[in-house]
Specification:
Layout: H1 13-23, E1 36-39, H2 43-46, E2 54-57, H3 59-66, H4 72-80, H5 83-87, E3 93-94, E4 101-106, E5 109-114, E6 120-127, E7 130-138, E8 141-149, E9 155-160, E10 163-166, E11 172-176, E12 179-185, E13 188-196, E14 200-210, E15 213-218, E16 221-224, E17 229-231, E18 235-237, E19 241-245, E20 254-258, H6 269-291
Parallel strand pairs: 4-14, 5-18, 6-19, 19-20
Antiparallel strand pairs: 1-2, 3-10, 4-5, 6-7, 7-8, 8-9, 9-10, 11-12, 12-13, 13-14, 14-15, 15-16, 16-17
Length: 292
């Protein structure tokens, strides 16, 4: 990148992404996924944005460096061997959820449940007995569980009972404010999830894969590629299952249950064309409702 002097402290987005990728998407010292961009040489001195000179530090380590408690040499050494790249996974981060009611919105479809006093569980999306999105209410605690696999069933992200972990394999991972975004490639989102403590989660975009089943989440709907199922404006309350796909060892009910679902074989052009048709019809229907 250019080392010319610049007047803006705002780091260009392309450089931010390059730094995130190099640093393993977390503080280079402790791996915390909540981080700040830090010029290893002070901005006031260099007044330039060069990816190799910028690193990621959590709030604590950033303050320690600024106050002189964390030597620059230690930061540079950690930048060369970031915590998350050594571990292959991020440091666990606790999400703060609680309450007697939980709500998960997936592509505009809403799943809610209430704590009935004996540990209440709900799986908005489950494939072959594996809840890809799950929630548990027990003793005033709302425990969120999410797992994202790649096409080879390798887990890329896992939220286990409110603890967030992710691998360093995806192209880009960004936790900005309350929104976690994972990208497979430029402008190709694998997951966008917004945490709304104390008791709500919103998933606007996502690609959920497991054993050849593909569930696409868009802001207005859910689309199952395998059988071209288009799901919008649905609501499930206090039932165990939402989308129950494939074989489950124990019988599980949901607002949509498909045991014998065809497996994804790679060619989905026809299915996606059908999805576009459904989206257009949905837009026309909503426009008609507004006009009437």
């Amino acid at each position: 990148m250019s080392d010319e002097k610049c007047t803006s402290r705002n780091i260009p987005l392309a450089i931010q992404r390059e730094v995130r990728q190099r640093c393993g998407f977390g503080c280079v010292i402790c791996g915390m996924p909540l981080y700040e961009y830090e010029h290893m040489e002070e901005w006031a001195v260099v007044k330039r944005h060069v990816a190799e000179e910028i690193t990621l530090l959590c709030d604590q380590h950033h303050r320690e460096k600024t106050n002189g408690l964390l030597p620059k040499e230690v930061v540079r050494e950690a930048d060369q061997n970031p915590h998350n790249l050594k571990a292959g996974v991020s440091k666990p981060y606790d999400l703060h959820f609680q309450g007697e009611k939980a709500e998960v919105s997936v592509g505009g479809n809403v799943f809610t449940c209430h704590d009935k006093g004996h540990g209440t569980a709900m799986a908005p999306i489950s494939v072959d007995g594996v809840p890809l999105i799950g929630l548990i209410l027990s003793d005033g605690h709302f425990l969120l569980n999410v797992v994202i696999f790649d096409e080879y069933n390798v887990p890329l992200l896992h939220i286990k009972n409110n603890q967030l972990f992710y691998t360093t394999e995806p192209w880009d991972i960004q936790l900005q404010g309350t929104t976690l975004t994972i990208r497979e490639a430029h402008r190709k989102i694998l997951l966008e999830i917004e945490f709304q403590p104390p008791n709500k989660v919103v998933i606007n975009r996502g690609r959920f894969l497991k054993n050849g089943v593909e569930v696409l989440v868009r802001p207005t709907h859910i689309f199952i590629t395998n059988n071209s199922a288009f799901i919008c404006d649905s609501r499930a309350e206090d039932c165990y299952g939402g989308l129950i796909l494939g074989s489950h060892e124990k019988h599980v009910t949901g607002f949509m249950s498909v045991q014998k679902i065809p497996r994804y074989l790679g060619d989905k052009a026809q299915a996606l064309a059908y999805e576009k048709t459904c989206v257009q019809e949905l837009k026309e229907k909503k426009l008609e409702q507004l006009l009437n």
